[in-house]
Design a protein that fits this description.
Number of strands: 35
Strand order of the largest sheet: 24-23-22-21-25-30-32-33-34-35
Helix content: 10-25%
Strand content: 25-35%
Number of helices: 13
Shape: globular
Structural class: alpha/beta
Largest sheet: 10 strands, mixed
Distance between the termini: 62 Å
């Protein structure tokens, strides 16, 4: 009621809601003793600013009107009306609902050269209707810059938008699943600015909060911050434009990267439910960056699967206020494709063997009771199947879920839900006590030191704890995803990977040869041959120490497969468990 004004005149009260003054004139009520309740009966009149006729209703002071469903509370002991139900019987509440996506796009003023922010993660929670309509818009806006967490998949959602030639530049954290997008980048059809996932979300939030810039540790000391990542290629694959250095600053002895707020001209967001005033409700991990895109946009179009009249949503149910939404449409295109369907069967034991299984089982030994843990794609995620009995840990998916459960089990009546996926875009369940949240909140947990352990994969590690995991120039474009945010956080960082690449190429080096994900960030390396501890802070003169070794492997074998010197733990070297 902060936007209302209450004027007392004798026993009469005049309540004005600033948002309704021009439309409704105000609410007028008076109080009198009530023989039934002893607290008085409020007589409410509703007046139109352009019409002196008023209609009065009697409202018992217990707060319920049998005819119209009004409720009220008291301010300093005075009866104040709070209209919760059937508001449309008396007050004309403007609707933001448009008849279709084409109308909303026209109203948004979107034009060639604009920047749009698009909610979604993979194909989860994407605004399909808006993307399909924009892709099919003949002679519509082109040369667009698109900001989204990921690049989706070929031929669907964002993939359509790229393929119809409307996009000039993509700002994203991960593009690994869209091979067509990767081809377009390496042949010069698209410019790609890779940005850490948490940084994209934070830049959007900063724009929505009126903050011109933020500081983050993600990417500090890497080519991302120092400049030099490929931004645009020529048709022959040669790099024609590189990224520029980003400003950095030291705080308490640690380097941070300054990132400018990301203020899109138009934002496309997807909600599960909305009311006609634009208040939004999200479901599961389909929230992802949708709220972040919404708060940032100069103009925001939301599409929702379910739309109800204003007043039908309980205020406590609403995740995003309608103040951020300009236009609303029904999600007419709502395929909700599942990118990676994963299911399991009760009692089924994961079949792992060889070196990969050895890594998985050893990674599971990093868990401690009560930990909050983030697991990367692949081997790290597999380690969650080997949590020791009786141990309780909370698994986080950075796309917006704390309390990550196993894959759905059809034998238990569970079905795959496109609104519940992990960071690998696989269908998952949520354990009892789980919570969901948007992307910027997820990375606040990570950067703020609320996570205890991060386990993720890598392409290369150095003796000083550097990690490379997201990009092979000219060959492979994956993107850093949330890895730069995760490894720069205060949590313990464990890297899991095979000791050598195909053909025997070394992956543990004195200095990484690939662009870095993080500089001096790795605490432990688990491979199929051994386990190294990394003295990333130089407390013991730096470098690696061999602390465990696989059965049948000698220290000399490890030295032959490693391109840097290392120490060996004193005494007998513990053996890694076999799968």
């Amino acid at each position: 009621m902060a936007s209302s004004s209450l004027l007392k005149s004798g026993s009469r009260y005049f309540l004005r809601r600033s948002a309704d003054i021009s439309r409704c004139g105000g609410l007028i009520g008076s109080s009198a003793p009530s023989p039934q309740h002893g607290r008085g009966i409020a007589s409410l009149s509703l007046c139109n600013a352009t019409n002196s006729d008023c209609k009065a209703d009697t409202i018992d002071t217990n707060g319920y009107n049998l005819l119209h469903g009004y409720q009220y509370h008291h301010i300093r002991g005075s009866p104040v009306i709070v209209i919760r139900r059937s508001i449309h019987h008396h007050i004309s509440v403007p609707s933001k609902l448009c008849k279709d996506a084409s109308t909303a796009l026209q109203l948004s003023g979107l034009k060639s050269g604009d920047t749009i922010a698009v909610g979604g993660f993979g194909v989860g929670g994407i605004p399909e209707t808006l993307l399909n309509t924009l892709s099919a818009w003949e002679n519509g806006p082109s040369d667009l810059t698109v900001a989204s967490l990921t690049a989706g998949v070929a031929g669907f959602g964002l993939g359509k938008l790229f393929e119809c030639g409307k996009v000039k530049r993509m700002i994203a954290s991960y593009v690994g699943e869209n091979k067509n997008f990767e081809r377009m980048f390496f042949t010069g059809e698209l410019e790609v600015e890779l940005v850490p996932q948490g940084t994209i979300a934070a830049r959007l939030r900063a724009a929505g909060a009126g903050m011109p810039a933020i500081f983050t540790p993600a990417g500090a000391g890497t080519m991302y911050a120092n400049g030099g990542l490929p931004l645009k290629h020529a048709p022959d694959g040669s790099v024609t434009v590189h990224t520029q250095p980003r400003p950095t600053q030291m705080f308490d002895g640690k380097e941070y990267v300054m990132e400018y707020a990301l203020r899109p001209d138009v934002s496309f967001v997807k909600a599960y439910k909305a009311d006609t005033r634009g208040n939004l409700v999200f479901r599961g991990t389909s929230s992802n960056a949708n709220p972040d895109c919404a708060v940032a946009g100069k103009v925001v179009i939301a599409e929702a699967e379910i739309i109800v009249e204003a007043g039908e949503l309980d205020p406590d149910e609403i995740h995003l206020s309608g103040v951020y939404v300009d236009h609303l449409i029904h999600a007419a295109d709502n395929e909700k494709r599942i990118e990676r369907l994963r299911e399991t069967t009760a009692g089924k034991v994961m079949d792992i063997s060889g070196g990969r299984g050895r890594i998985v089982k050893r990674a599971a030994k990093e868990f401690r009771d009560g930990m909050y843990v983030n697991l990367g794609i692949g081997i790290p995620t597999m380690a969650s199947s080997f949590i020791p009995e009786g141990m309780h840990i909370e698994l986080q998916a950075e796309n917006g879920l704390m309390g990550l459960g196993p894959y759905p089990d059809p034998s238990l009546g569970q079905t795959a839900d496109p609104d519940y996926i992990n960071a690998g875009k696989e269908t998952v369940t949520a354990v009892p006590g789980a919570s969901t949240f948007h992307s910027s909140e997820s990375f606040n947990m990570i950067r703020g030191g609320h996570m205890d352990l991060t386990i993720l994969g890598g392409m290369q590690c150095s003796s000083s704890g550097d990690l490379a995991s997201f990009f092979i120039p000219g060959k492979l474009l994956k993107g850093m995803g949330g890895a730069m945010d995760l490894v720069s956080s205060p949590s313990t960082v464990v890297v899991t990977m095979e000791h050598t690449a195909k053909g025997g190429a070394h992956k543990i080096l004195e200095e990484c040869t690939l662009p870095l994900t993080g500089k001096g960030v790795v605490d432990r390396i688990i491979t199929d041959m051994c386990v190294f501890d990394c003295d990333k802070r130089g407390l013991k003169n730096g470098g690696l120490t061999l602390i465990e070794i696989a059965q049948g492997i000698t220290v000399d074998d490890v030295r032959a497969a490693t391109s840097c010197s290392f120490d060996v733990v004193e005494g007998d070297i513990p053996l890694m468990e076999e799968p």
